[in-house]
Structure formats: structure tokens, C-alpha cells
Structure prediction request, 233 residues.
Amino acid sequence: MLEVRQLTKIYNEQNKVENISFSLQSGQCLALCGGNGAGKSTIIKMLIGQLTPTKGDICINGKQVQKDDKHWFSFMPDHLQFPPLLTGYEVLSLFGRWQGATAERVEQCLQLVGLTNDQHKQVKTYSKGMQQRLAFAQALLADAPLLILDEPTNGLDPYWVWEFKRLIRTEKEKGKAVIFSTHMLSIVEEIADTVAFIHQGQMLVYDSVSTLCQDGQSLESIFFAQLSQHMAY
Ligand SMILES: Nc1ncnc2c1ncn2[C@@H]1O[C@H](COP(=O)(O)OP(=O)(O)OP(=O)(O)O)[C@@H](O)[C@H]1O
Prediction:
């Protein structure tokens, strides 16, 4: 459903993301991995139309995506600032109104992320993990074919990381495609079908997780091996 070709953003000579190509089918999950400053958020910002690519194509079902064409994805940013005085329920209802979600869907999403009991508390009283779960609920509201999540497990405790993985599997079973960025490679091994390893704006590895890990190697050891090869030049 999604085809990305030669996606490039040149901020300046030192800071750039170049020639990123990948494809994604419905029901599949792609993880974007890489160190700090590798280029993951830049790729995501180009996908969601927040940054104009220097060059490259983004196509959905064979058609080039236009800058303001947003109905094909739901997005969870890495930092989502909520109005602090509103309750969780009020925040999600607002997002629901913008996205055309029903009141029932709002309640369903609050329940999926475990915030039903806290829905009438002001967001300023939420912990970091609770705010992160509210941001995830916001991305689940709409019925878009692709979920794009920027570091969705930041601040989640082990139980909610486990729940996040379960929810993503459910979205995949419903036919949703998922792209997420993360530093947590164990999560990638468990829920992603393909992985792109970005280093200094270049895609060093792009392959299926099962192929990469077929000899029992972990993604961590595979990526470190790639990194040391790359740094040796
Ligand atoms: N607006 C900008 N102007 C210039 N350079 C930028 C800009 N935004 C990001 N960069 C640079 O582009 C590169 C990629 O940054 P990006 O935020 O995409 O990395 P990331 O992989 O998401 O990092 P992290 O894991 O730390 O969030 C970095 O070198 C960064 O300094």
C-alpha cells in the first residue's frame, strides 16, 4: 500500500537524510531504528507532510501523496503537548471531533490504553506514561489504513510496553499497516515484519526481521556489526 522511493531531506551539508526507500503492505509493520540524530524523525516528518522532501516520492496505492493529503495515516508524535487543564476525556473528545470519531470510539480508545478510571482527571495530573498512552489513544481514534508512531514506547512501564505490542498486533490483524521508530530493539523483534536501520541519514540495513534473525542473532548484534563496519571506513 505504501511505497517510498529515494526520500531525501538535505538540511545542510552535515545534516541530511538521503535516498530512503521502502515499501509496506497492509497488515505489516516497519520499524525505523538508529541512534540519536540518525534521521528517524526526519523520515517520519516527511511521511506526514510536516517537512517537504528535497527529493523522493511517497505513493499510496500507486498514487503520489500530496502535501495536505492526511486521511491515509494516523500519527502519534514523540512529544504531544495536551492542554493541561482539560481532562483526558475532554482531550480525546476534541481529537475525536477533529478526526470524525464517535463518542463510543473515544471511550473505546480510553479503555484500550487503560485510562478509563482516570479519564476525568486533568491532563496536568497525568504521569509521563499516562500522557504517552493518551497520545497513543489519539492515534487509534481514526480508522486510517496506516499508523505512524514516533517513539511510541517512551516512558511506558513494562506492562504497558507489553500492552502496546498486543495492541499493535491487533491493528495488524485488522489490516492496518504500522510504521514506528524506536530505540528498543527487543520490541522490533517481537512486532515488526521489516526493519530499517538508519545511520547518519543513510539506510544501512533494510530487511525482514525473520531473515535478519534467522541464525539466532539478535538485532542488537546485527546492528552493532553493521555500525562497526561502517565506522571502519
Ligand atoms: N530543522 C533542522 N535543521 C537542521 N538540522 C536538523 C533539523 N532537524 C533535524 N536536524 C538534523 O538532522 C539529523 C536527523 O535528525 P532526526 O531528528 O531526524 O534524528 P532521530 O533519528 O529522530 O534522532 P533521535 O533518536 O535523537 O530522536 C540530525 O543530525 C539533526 O541534528
Q: What stands out?
A: The helical segments are 40-47, 88-99, 103-112, 128-141, 158-173, 185-191, 209-212, 219-232.
